[in-house]
Structures are given as C-alpha cells and as structure tokens.
Specification:
Helix content: 55-70%
GO molecular function, one term: DNA binding
Number of helices: 4
Protein name: MerR family transcriptional regulator
CATH class: Mainly Alpha
Radius of gyration: 17 Å
Number of domains: 1
Structural class: mainly alpha
Organism: Streptomyces pactum
Distance between the termini: 25 Å
InterPro entries: DNA-bd_dom_put_sf, MerR-type_HTH_dom
Number of strands: 3
Length: 109
C-alpha cells in the first residue's frame, strides 16, 4: 500500500477511480463510444460497470485510450494499436523486473 502521503484523498484523486461515463470519455478523447467499445473488445481496457450496467472509465484508462487513438490516427488498425500498447506495457514491466533483480543481486548497490 502506498504511503499515506501518496494515497488519494478522494475518489477523484485516484487515477483508477471509474469517474467518467462512456459519453464523457469519448468527448474528452475526441472519439466515439464505438471506438471505446472496440478497445474493450480487443482487451486493451476493461471499464467498470455502474449499478445500471453502464461503462465507467478511469483517468488511467483514458490515457491508454488516448495512446490508442494516437496510433489509430497515424494509420494503425485498432486491433494492431491495442496489441502494440499491450506489448509496450509488457516490455516496461519486464524491464522493471529486470532492474529489480539486478539491484537485488548487485553487491555494489
């Protein structure tokens, strides 16, 4: 758990809080709800659902969707854009783990 000083004080301070409706998220990204649904179909982002079953997006998910939109706007197919972002995330995680392992096994650190 993060230290108290870095924990969100309200849900709106939390990057993972599902604060945005599909319509609002699409407006913020300058895209359509269909684009957001496509990102979900390709398993790039999985929005939470409200009690009424409506999709709700977090700021973190909107940043991922914005990255996908950049790739699609540059001519990449939606499916390929989703795969690229997933692979970028996996690479970043693998690099982080490698650094942690190196630090744990390097007596100079």
């Amino acid at each position: 758990m993060p230290p108290a000083s870095t924990r969100p004080t309200t849900p709106l301070d939390d990057d993972d809080y599902p604060a945005y409706t599909m319509g609002r998220a699409a407006d913020m990204l300058g895209t359509t709800p269909a684009f957001l649904r496509a990102l979900g179909e390709h398993r790039l982002i999985t929005p939470l659902r409200s009690e009424g079953g409506h999709r709700r997006y977090s700021r973190y998910q909107l940043r991922i969707a914005a990255r996908a939109r950049e790739l699609v706007d540059a001519g990449t197919a939606v499916e390929a854009a989703c795969r690229i972002i997933i692979l970028e995330d996996q690479l970043e995680e693998a690099q982080r783990i490698n650094e942690e392992l190196r630090a744990a096994h390097d007596p100079a650190q």
